[in-house]
Amino acid sequence: MAEPARPLISAEHLFKIYTSGEQELFALNDLSLQVVDGEFCAIMGTSGSGKSTLMNILGALDRPTRGDYWLDGELVSSMSDAKLSNLRNRKIGFVFQSFNLLPRLNAVENVEVPLVYSRVPAKDRRARAIEALTQVGLGDRLTHRPTQLSGGQQQRVAIARALVTRPRLLLADEPTGALDSETTKQILALLDTLHDSGLTIALVTHEASVAARAQRMVWVRDGQIVADGPPAEVMAGRRAAETPVAP
Ligand SMILES: Nc1ncnc2c1ncn2[C@@H]1O[C@H](COP(=O)(O)OP(=O)(O)O)[C@@H](O)[C@H]1O
Ligand SMILES: [Mg+2]
């Protein structure tokens, strides 16, 4: 019989330890996480709990101090920097709270940037970028620069840029953190559509209403997972854990 397929993400006993003088800070403290293909997983926790540290490792922007991280069958945690950036380009799309667009480039040029690194021929880049911008509802804003776009539109450009390489995994670290509630709704609806079309998504947020959109909620505290399951159950469990018991 064939071996069962490894999950898309398999992080095993991850530690991230920051040392300053005598002090050791365990930003991740023996954290294991598996995410299967097609899942939409929200990672929640208070500020400083280790969410961004985890996302940066899952996104191959950083390496754990100890532990193994497998992505789509590749052992990421022991890769050289060159291999890491190659893998990032092939398999991962990353969206940040602050959009991180290049101000001098227009929407289509911003979206083309990852294609330059992945050596897509110049003649194909424009069509791929236009396709990605159309997918996020910005087909009519192709030549606008970031300053000529609203926050929600800028985040859409950033999502198009993350999708244009056709990644296996979309990672979003507080993607709605800089947006008003109406724009947040629109971006979440877009993520729902992408998930429905089969994309695997891991989204970091500290807002319960945002996390509730996912199928699965992982709660991180002090660099460890303290709850994992359907959002409603995890939220109920957290409320119970944090509500002082009446005398
Ligand atoms: N580069 C770093 N050097 C030292 N400590 C760090 C560094 N990055 C994060 N930390 C610490 O690690 C912990 C987790 O940080 P982070 O992952 O950014 O949390 P979150 O995203 O949940 O707010 C915090 O205590 C933070 O101060
Ligand atoms: Mg963070």
What general form does the structure show?
globular
Write out the distinct hetero groups bound to the structure: adenosine-5'-diphosphate, magnesium ion
Rg over alpha carbons: 19 Å
Named at the architecture level, the CATH assignment is 3-Layer(aba) Sandwich
Helix-strand makeup class? alpha/beta
Helix count, per DSSP?
A: 8
**How many domains make up the 3D coordinates?**
1
Q: Overall mean pLDDT score?
A: 93
Tell me the series of helices and strands, N- to C-terminal: EEEHEEHEHHHEHEHEEH
CATH class label: Alpha Beta
Low-confidence runs of at least 5 consecutive residues: none
* Physical arrangement of strands within the biggest beta sheet: 6-7-8-3-9-10
- Going by CATH, what is the homologous superfamily? P-loop containing nucleotide triphosphate hydrolases
- Percent of residues in beta strands: 25-35%
> In whole angstroms, how far apart are the ends?
57 Å
| Secondary structure: helix percent | 25-40%
Structure characterization notes:
The longest helix is centred in the C-terminal third of the chain and has 16 residues, at 181-196. This protein is α/β, with parallel strands linked by helices and 247 residues long. The model has no long low-confidence stretch (mean pLDDT 93). Helix 3 (107-117) crosses helix 4, helix 4 crosses helix 5 (151-163) and helix 5 (151-163) packs parallel to helix 6 (181-196). Helix 6 links the parallel strand 7 and strand 8. It is 36% helix and 27% strand. It has a 6-stranded mixed beta sheet, with helices on both faces. A 4-stranded antiparallel beta sheet has the order 2-1-4-5, with helices on one face. The chain has 8 helices and 10 strands. It has a single domain, classed as Rossmann fold (3-Layer(aba) Sandwich). The termini are far apart. It binds adenosine-5'-diphosphate and magnesium ion. The site of magnesium ion has 2 residues, from helix 1.
